[in-house]
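This entry is listed as follows:

___
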Amino acid sequence: MEKGYLSLILHAHLPFVRHPEYSEFLEEDWLFEAITETYIPLINIFDRLIEEDINFRITMSLTPPLISMLTDSLLQSRYIRYVEKWIQLAEKEIERTKHQPDFNRLAQMYYKHFTDARYVFAEKYHQNIIQAFRKFQDMGKLEAITCAATHGYLPLMNTNANAMRAQIHVAVNHYEKHFGRKPRGIWLPECAYESGIDRILKEAGIRFFVSETHGILFASPRPKYGVYAPIYCPSGVAVFGRDMESSKQVWSSKEGYPGDFFYREFYRDIGFDLDYDYVKPYLHGDGKRSNTGIKYYRITGKSDHKEPYLHGKALDKAAEHAGNFMFNREKQIEYLASVMDRKPIIIAPYDAELFGHWWFEGPNWVDFLFRKIAFDQKTIALITPMEYLEMYPVNQVSTPSLSSWGYKGYNEYWLNGSNDWIYRHLHKAAERMVDLAKAYPHADGNSLQNRALNQAARELLLAQSSDWAFIMRTGTMVEYAVKRTKDHLSRFTKLYDDVRSNNVDAAWLADIENKDNIFPDIDYHIYQ
């Protein structure tokens, strides 16, 4: 009989990037890379575990923007074009490297990798891999949870409760549409919490959320079990806290597993390494060098010199690291079980894109970990947060602390000199959206006015995405993040003025409805 539990939680999220006005768009590759390198490898692992009757549990947050892109017909067709381009390049690489055995084996590996991705996406799941995640949920292996509608940073919306409420309720309705039931849990964007958010979650039927470590440790009164059991907010919504030890072992590129010298080097790609004229046909229209996903070197060390990547050796390391992770959790559980009057739970949350995209062997690590937990020990069992709540429905009541993950842990990454200018505009737009919802309580069905009000809600939600503030702070793709913020605010303002003056431009509205088509079923009354 197990002494405690491990809950692995993967946060799968990307900002809504869809540009039908262009034949191709560089930032859409964020989605296509994640499909190829993270989502499909994880789906393959889950399918194999099920086929081999190996029991496992995992929790994944699938955010509304990600689900919207994965179910969008334009992006689905563009992904097919994307992956077929890399299949062609991998074929060329097999020929080019035929006298370089180390690289030739890798070229063949990438050819198989891309052709398998195309098969799983296009044929096995008919271009909609959300069907795979719903299947795993329906089988009881995966707990899919939601997030705020556009990953809006909720504590920085605290001037307008209706804006926060819309982010949550739109997400819940969207999840139910795609998964056939209401979500039981939520990943708060950036794990950002402040008192009162839980009451909105309660209204929406959410049972639990995940907090950064100090959100639990600094809760009032202090939780008896720290982060190794949930607490209830005064509203009755449960909170699970991140375990720092297990997170750091996987998450840290310097101290954690992904930095091992045998793993694949992310930053050496043939899109930059090979002759320009050779790779040019596979680059975007602007001709700038970019990643192809074909990478031939391992991390090797901290110098610029890199040795060829040996996939077999890397898989051996992934198995070794999975065993080490399991051993550490066993020791952790054994100690905690000796001092607690209930079985402890270790919450280990990570960005899903770490597994496969940044850490190429990450999905294999998950596979090895699940197999080792199933066969090589009896101390730990895998569990979802909801299963733990059903097992232990009585928990301490405490108010979590204001908290977020990221730099310093108190909103600093999303509110600083690089991005603070956006908030006065977001606050004003939220006020105006609430005013519109109250001023026009009975817009008729599919009337121009009703469409404009619904599109105004979409534009506000898209402007509120925490991704834009995050990108401005990181200093990468800043121009795009600024443009997206300004574009959505500008569109919202025009819609506000047009509705107020009863002068909606039908052709312009149809154009932005096509561009920003997230949440087709949205009802602006959510802002009342």
The longest strand covers residues 4-12. The domain at 417-527 is CATH 1.20.1430.10 (immunoglobulin/albumin-binding domain-like).
